[in-house]
């Protein structure tokens, strides 16, 4: 692609694409193509001007080379663009705003006064109808205040004042509508989770293939903890499906042969063979949008309070207007009060504050599904950590394999990987990765695989039952035994590792030692969480007391629990909440799902199981636990800003009322100052929180 450099400085370059016209889709392709480059820090593509502003690290040549190689027809580049980018939504709002401003000034410059007055009367009918509808229901809402202000202005022949009020109300409605649509669009895009690879079912066995290679009519296998990648029909099997992302249902739905399953839902228990019905999953985004719009999931308590408070203040505004007129007999003073309402600022500033927090979280690798969860994080006093993949590295490694009964080490690893690859979890991933590193192919040797939550996996291999999992699962639930004369070797297993036990035919075949090192930042993060107001930091794990105690002492948690089951984690959180605590939970596995659901805010690790990310209210990057510190700071900053906005809006508008009642300002000046303050507070609410904290 040909382009010219318009301007550049160290680490930043602005280029112009040498083509006569750029569509919004082409701008998205270029922008997401550049975003995917490791040396690009940030990029913004302007389709109207055909320019791209790129901030980068390293050498300039890397940027120019990437631009030279770019093509709008590149399938890999096109694939990077999500279904909804928000560019069209932003353009729609921009056009509406520009058209509204242009139309307003065109009227004032071109139309004679009598026609302008007639146009204002026509536009006022909309507000009068809304007010009459509200009054007919016996309610005094903001619409009554708006209609009264407009009507009184028109009766006093003050067309400019009435037109200004209606213009600002129109812009306010436009901004509120855009804010809501933008929120829903971003949230729906986040919830449209992608699936990279799927298990393709055939007579020759199951094969792991990219989802892009799947065609309509292909059969796929999905098992416990896996996300259904495409809208499909169940061919065989039974499973409980978590459909909360689409329907809001908290309980799983039973699916069997002939049932329809939707892309983005998660297999909570069981396994299915499904026949692909829609290769694009095209209806999923729209269904998510509908679900969000019909629920209160997005709103925090502060937003709901702002919405209702604006209406509750209406009678007081009207009362103050009437009282001022009765005491002063001055219509101008009464009108000055009437021009002031709290609705615009309250109803705009609060959602914008929340959306700004969600946007900043996204930029920091944190995905938040609604404002109320940020509020919960800000108010939380207790935080519960799962250990494996959370406080420890998300990608543990196989340290060594100890075989029993004369079994071959590579063969045992091959079998373990064959079983574990069906259930993505940090330990399972470690086993599969080790087999890959050793070049071991692990074709399907087993029959149907059964996953026992928080315990392990069982199947049948060459006619014998094969099980892999925890000590409790292998030796207590399955009653497996250690080979004769090898008890001493079993008793001397290295204690510095976590152990994954593999048994075939009821006899221990191998112990896979998992190196589960602590995250480098874990200790510092726990300390900072204490500093930020968390009174209790708890670790819960299914590991032994020895391992749990060692990790707990190393990271500095306040309390720890070991050998816990999924229901134990959820029960602990429920008990703490009943005591009046605000609790957040961080986990990454299928076994963490009940606890994530029970917490005031459930936080999943991005590399964790699909069901954990589905159920969680917030997802953080697996790269760095400092995301939790960032999340807490942004959440607290959001609540402080909302509090400041309340005080500013109520105080400033109350001051305008007093100035109007005393005759110091005119109705037009009152409306101007009120609307200006609304815009100023809304703009201030868009600032990043971490930058505010740094100042």
**Content-based structural category:** alpha+beta
**Based on CA inertia axes, which overall geometry fits?**
elongated
Counting DSSP E segments of at least 2 residues, the number of strands comes to: 24
Low-confidence region ranges: none
Question: How large is the share of residues in beta strands?
Answer: 15-25%
Radius of gyration: 30 Å
Mean pLDDT: 82
How much helicity do the residues have?
40-55%
How would a textbook summarize the main sheet?
7 strands, antiparallel
How many separate domains make up the residues? Answer: 5
Query: Separation of termini?
Result: 42 Å
Instruction: Give the count of helical stretches.
Output: 27
Structure explained in plain terms:
By secondary structure, this protein is α+β, with helices and mostly antiparallel strands. The protein has five domains: 3-81, 2-Layer Sandwich (Alpha-Beta Plaits), CATH 3.30.70.100; 92-188 and 299-353 and 637-694; 197-282, Calcium-transporting ATPase, cytoplasmic transduction domain A (Distorted Sandwich), CATH 2.70.150; 366-393 and 518-620, 3-Layer(aba) Sandwich (Rossmann fold); 397-515, Calcium-transporting ATPase, cytoplasmic domain N, CATH 3.40.1110.10. The protein contains 27 helices and 24 strands. The strands form four sheets. Strands 5, 6, 7, 8, 9, 10 and 11 form a seven-stranded antiparallel beta sheet that branches. The chain has a seven-stranded mixed beta sheet with strand order 12-24-23-22-13-20-21, with helices on both faces. It has a six-stranded antiparallel beta sheet with strand order 14-19-18-17-16-15, with helices on both faces. The longest helix is centred in the C-terminal third of the chain and has 36 residues, at 626-661.
